[in-house]
């Protein structure tokens, strides 16, 4: 057996936190074979990014490798990256070890052209003369599948889409044909259909260059589909490692089994069964919305309509730019649509949107629980705010005692610890913060809740918990949800009915069962196909799919 | 380019508004310049004679008429007559302006150089204590009063160390201390903004990406950070031009230099309204021009603004 390219042995990393040092990695050992893909899987705080940063010597300030080694076996003999510093380290970075970063939106210098960014590793490592570098940049941009590479090289990052930016970053990473490519959540910020193409590109390039790839991801489905081997991290320790199929089919640790069960894309479950049709409670008719005016006008939403029955969940699914958030905000009464109507029960939302009493009927929970809570208010203050503004659900003003008792009831309702009320948002985890946001939306006892990507920023196990909480509350309170998401796997878990959006238009509307199992529209099928899942898993779960022939719309 | 046109028109409006507001405010000052200049008992002028003087200087006419006369005068290059010296204001300004422009330009350049040096050491300095020390310089510099700094520099460098002669100094030597005095209070906020901008830029993911490509400190600072940090700094630099004008008044008085600052100080003391009006308008024009240049330069630095400009 040939020696692996990368061997991490007993690696321990800690960060300085106030007075003591906090351990981020505790005795991690890993191997990555030549030409192989090793997926490093784990939730936030598991140490997967710390591992990547340790390899390229880019630990954030206060971070330190306490012990262990990171052996990279190059032609000239092995190098211990854990001991490398200064010039010697800079010489390895970009040339032998390259990084494909997480967020293509912020990983390119906004004031540099794409060409300059891709040329940077070539120029830093003095690859050749300026004209040669220029030719090489165009060649690289062409190789990663950017059309008109000459022009792309002259453009700036803001002129490119997220997928195109990630292609440019990959071009820069492979410029010097590195032995090791570290891909740190390379597709987390991208739409599913784009994610698929970027992962395909990485696969192709790995085959061509014979590089090894360390794929860091929170998405087990991506790991399952793309990696030869998987290492599961938890709290800075290796939970288990092994060939992908072995780990996923017979997980040795209970934690891996939980992760697998919670990963919506891998879950083997059917969508909610359709209910007998009833009068819709929320009605959206011929909704249209334009941003800008005149020649610059952009039609974000175009003639979209759907109905939601009381006590059910309707999912709005689409990629970025599909108009799903615009619709959600219009339903919540935050802005008036350019055309069309929205009714909740017998209330006209468009006409009543400035009416504060509308807030008793419909509430919004947004994606980012870090940004949607006031950092200076305690949890109890945030949750109680709607009651202070609007009074009790029946309109009465509440005295202090009653307010406090309602707030603590709400805290209990969303299964937060009883003492959470006195804490500040920063003292809570992401999942806990989202529970606070949900409690704040529900304390006013609305009939409808618009959930805008409300679980997208959360780890899978937390995501599963929040989805279960939302289902429970729906059952208990008879809530109607408008659930906005890009993630079809989440739709399968929670939705009764679905509208698939593309560039502002509804391409398909129907029950979850029909849309997910018997999609009529080609775009819905493309979205479903793009959900990562390994072939061997797909065939095993396909047995449960109704083999009704497809109707082409 | 409609953006450039729009900004230029706005700049023109600001100058006009400044002219009118300055004129009205100076008119609203209690008492009038004729009384201040000629009503002292030694001159022994009668009220009738004072009225005659008012007619000569035109101060007896309605305010709007005076404003109109003054405005048309400005457009034709006639800035009025100094009440104090009787000389044409444009002649006084022409004599004072070159010296002040030299002082301001050199002071500003020195301030930029000082700010860049402070910011570079404060953010990329080798040792942590060094970075900390340089980080605390701007707050210190901001809190130093200009006149005090001028006097201390004069005392230490000229009188005690004898590095720069006070008497018979060459024009270049005579500039050193005033330039330093005017530069320090401008360099401080500039450095502060620059440090902040560099900190923000360094925290951006693309810097980590550049490091992962093997970039060293010099590449990072020169190629990745500089241009990103330049924009907020440039904007604040335009605003700080106002400081230069105020700094010139004090500096020229402390160092007994001729110049617009000195002229202003004397005009204020003597309530020489035509001179004040001219100084205010000239300063406003300078301020507006510099900020116009900053605004027009911004899209050249940050390509994202080019799109916003066209939209």
TrEMBL record, chain A:
Membrane-spanning parts: none
Superkingdom classification of source: Bacteria
GO biological process, any: peptide transport
Domain ABC transporter: 6-260, 282-528
Entry keywords, A to Z: ATP-binding, Nucleotide-binding, Transport
InterPro entries linked: AAA+_ATPase, ABC_transp_ATP-bind, ABC_transporter-like_ATP-bd, ABC_transporter-like_CS, Oligopep_ABC_C, P-loop_NTPase
Xref: Gene3D superfamilies: P-loop containing nucleotide triphosphate hydrolases
One example GO MF annotation: ATP hydrolysis activity
Family membership noted in the UniProt record: Belongs to the ABC transporter superfamily.
NCBIfam families documented for this protein: PRK11308.1
UniProt protein name: ABC transporter domain-containing protein
Organism encoding this protein: Agrococcus pavilionensis RW1
UniProtKB/TrEMBL annotation, chain B:
Keywords: Cell membrane, Membrane, Transmembrane, Transmembrane helix, Transport
TM segment ranges: 101-125, 137-163, 175-195, 229-255, 275-298
Biological-process GO terms, alphabetical: transmembrane transport
Subcellular localization, as worded in the UniProt entry: Cell membrane
Primary site of residence: membrane
SUPFAM superfamilies: MetI-like
Domain ABC transmembrane type-1: 97-298
InterPro entries: MetI-like, MetI-like_sf
Xref: Gene3D superfamilies: MetI-like (1.10.3720.10)
UniProt GO cellular component terms: plasma membrane
Membrane topology: Multi-pass membrane protein
Keyword Amino-acid biosynthesis: no
Entry annotated with the keyword Cell membrane: yes
Family according to the record: Belongs to the binding-protein-dependent transport system permease family.
Protein name, entry field: ABC transmembrane type-1 domain-containing protein
Organism: Agrococcus pavilionensis RW1
Lineage: Bacteria, Bacillati, Actinomycetota, Actinomycetes, Micrococcales
